[in-house]
Amino acid sequence: MAKSKHAFSRYKIINDCLSNPGRRFNIDKLVKQVNDVLLDQYDLERGVSKRQIYEDIKFMRSAEGYDAPIETYRDGQTMIYHYSDPDYDFAKHGLTQRDKMQMKEVAEFLEQFKNLEGFENYSEMATALKSSVLQSDNQNPAIQFEINEFLQGREHLSSLYDYIINKKTLEIHYQPYGKVEEIVIVSPKFLKQYNNRWFLFSWSHKYDDLNIMALDRINEIKPSKIKYKKVDFSAIDYFDEIIGVTNIKEELSQDVILKFSQNRYQYVKSKPLHGTQFDYKDADNNSVENTIGINVKYNRELLSTILSFGSDVEVLAPASLRDKVKEEVVKQLNFYNK
């Protein structure tokens, strides 16, 4: 059983090779492909050996591995590796027993930090891991997290994370909604999930500025030979003044005062809209019933958040935001007045 570092990454690369009907891979080509990808992603000093790839293939074939239908046929003096079942899907095989043991060990490790300041989210992560293991064993789950399993782009998360950690410049094929695909060269900095979508924050080499891309609009990612741009990016500072992912330079943060219905007020008290949320008080320092304030910049995400509460919220200030919300409500009303 292969237990070395980056084992799962190697299995995935081998799977990608054998799933490609347009190419033929002997052992030397498999070794080269695995090393090309690993050296790009992890900035390793040296690649893996041929013996390691033989061990990986052996494990992937095994019942304790992935039951992969890997077979060989002779082509001249060399043996070509392929899947005997063209419909085999490595991703749908599920967790191996070794995967499950490792996940349980990680969950137990994370739970040790749950009471430490700054590590509160580790408990949730541990619970998610344990729930995944139970579901892989076909046990009824006791908890469900909000994950859109049909969301495009999630397959890029792992590789993008590695590229960020290892400071690798990327060539990304990106296609905004309703537009043609464009190729951009970026230095990746940060990944952020918002409203069940993932976003990549990177530094554009063309515009020398921050670039934000939704992962579900990325068609392809390739490592680039261009030098990585070491530009400081503080996620804490960037998100401190906004809801969502859009930080408009020209906008200034301001107090947004919102009055809620009684039921919704209790909801936003228990689940604050933003880290700056406060109970609003009048000029005499008296609390105003069911009213809170947040200090943020205006962006589309702020507007969408307010509109999501429907008739349970009223914008008291600023007047400019109140007008924008009113304009959107009138547009919605017009749909039903036809």
Detailed description of the structure:
The chain is α+β, with helices and mostly antiparallel strands and 338 residues long. Helices cover 36% and strands 22% of the residues. It contains ten helices and eleven strands. Helix 4 (97-111) packs antiparallel against helix 5 (121-136).
Query: In oligomeric terms, what are we looking at?
Result: single chain
Euclidean distance between termini CA atoms: 67 Å
Question: How is the largest sheet built, in terms of strand order?
Answer: 6-5-4-3-7
What low-confidence regions span 5 or more consecutive residues with pLDDT below 50? none
* Helix and strand run: HHHEEHHHEEEEEHEHEEHEH
Q: What is the share of helical residues?
A: 25-40%
Instruction: Quickly count the helices.
Output: 10
Largest beta-sheet details: 5 strands, antiparallel
Question: Radius of gyration in whole Å, from Cα?
Answer: 25 Å
